[in-house]
Amino acid sequence: MPPDSAVTASTTTSAAVPAETSVPGAAPLAALGVEQAEAALVEHYTRLVRLAYLVLPPSLGRNRRVLTAHALVQRSLPRGRAAARSAIPAQSRAEAAGGTRGAKGTRGAERAGGAATDGGTATGAGRNPGYAYVRERVLRQALDAGRPMRRLARPRLAQLPPPLPRVWGLRLFPRSGGADELALDQRLSGLSGPARAAFALRGLELLTDEEVRRLLHAAGAVDTETALAEAADAAERRIGTADPVELLRSAEFDPCSLQARPTDLMRRRQYGRAALAAAAALLVCGTLLGLPGGRGPDDDADSPYGHNAAVAAALDPARVRRIAPAAWQTSARTDFSVWPARGPLAEDHALLRRALTAWAAPGASVHISATPATPSGPPMGSPQLLYAGTVDAARVVLFHDGLRVVRYAEPAAGGEEVAALDFARVDGAGAAAAGALVVGRSDGEVRYLTAPWVRSTSVRDLLDPAEPARPLRRDADGVTDPLASPAMAQDCRSWDTLSVRDGSDSSDSSDSATERLLTDLGELTPARLTSGPPSAPGDVTSPADRAAWARTACLLPAMRSHGVRSVNSWPYARQPLPESNGTATWLCTRADTWRGTGSRVLAQFQTPARTAAPGAVAARAEDTPACGARESRVLAGVLWKSRGGTWYVLAAGSGRLGSVQVSGGVRGSTPGSLLAVRAREGVQAELYGETPDGTRVDALR
Question: How many H-runs (helices) and E-runs (strands) does the chain carry?
């Protein structure tokens, strides 16, 4: 994007530090009781929830962040009724007596105007040892939620729904702000968790840089200097005419001032019927299992399901299904069901028995994760073995049961009592979707197990479309060397994808072989990347497709850990910009899931640029057919500033539109699917279009 132009989205569219750690040179640690901490929590509840909401990962989505923020604050009291200690001391007597603050803290106080919020000023709350303790606990939990999950480590909080509060039948999210608030939300989503924390602590808590540094260190952040630098840079760059710090106090970032919308009503009805059917089936099965009968000769008394011969047989390592190495070449299907059993530990029955037992009845030491709507129950009969071997520092077993792929992992250096189970849906997979599975992640890197029909593997950086693919070695079982995992990265300086070729001939480098790009989005199954219209998406092979993805890749974090099967990027319109500013491209990026529901759609506006700068997100929606195979139409708009300083409302729709109209703060219409109307900075407007037969088409939202 040229430096003298601006685009804003329009409304038309880390290791933990022990709690007893002291800070060198600080005042003595403050001891407090649970009553004092509870009083501070109740008095400053809205401030603490806002702080947690700002620090939590934006990838959770607004509804999930709201509930998680409330959950973090509500469970931040000391355990028991004993005295608790904060790693950050209460304000020293000199400060409490009116001592001077640092320059940045003074500027923050002037910016806030000294107004009291949530029961007192930021300085007054900072002198309260109970508030300091609770704030540190909230900050630590919020930062933990954004740290990458380590293999065999305890699943991070962001992957688990908060136990309390729970809201049934409603989606809650803060009230929508204007274009400035949306721009600030996008800016914060590009910062690391510690940087967002530093931004909020400086802007809302009015802390000096030294106080922020100590608090971040106590909460488990490592590189506090980088976090402070990122926060300072985000605070100094104004958004239009607005101060980013002032925007933090708007309703857009207030998780205590909420609006409600219903969840998917049809899906709730289906779930209710399924629950009734499951309860009836459970009652029948329980009755049958309770009938007198005796144990079979093959029942395993030590098995958690030893009383049921069918389930016990499913847990027998000798009965797991093993597919022949060449079966896929003659099979009518090309999916996970024809993957052969591979790996040096495929005959280790002790390992397989531990994996099957953990799957059937996981104990408290087994950490479980599953993609959304993926059942994590016991195997439905004897599962198929895909792989068993040592990957990095873990022994890994991969199973397939027709519906799911299941990965079991335990430490390679003993300690079998600690293990991890990952579940992912893979029903309906074809050759393209069954090209690879994640077999291990560690130290910011990922390894894949590739399908038997994959001829060669390489690495492509989406952010550098001109760079040729780098070769990636595989071992005899199809396990790749490690490559950087974008799902575990804290920034978007590169985006390495797995490129696989599976042509019909034996030449790995054959130009006739089909190249597919797969990317790690934090799940067991990598997501396939495609380009083109929803009716016929294709692989990302042309220079134009790669150039478009180079400016789209950094938006993929919004789709992490969502059960994504494929992501398609479709340039649905090209629009000449007013005042001869070049030609902009409108793209629709749609992530489809394995379960069918829960799709995510982004409408993106890309102005001419010499670099691969990300486009502006004009609109986003969830669980919508827009931009998909069933409904390809999409309409979105932005508020755009030309190089000459004039503001415009720009909009573009796909397909055949008879007209596009804008109303509200600016009015105008144009025939066809492209609109450009002069406007004022910060104007609020509504978009809609009409087809030639008069059918209304609403803007994506």
Answer: 16, 30
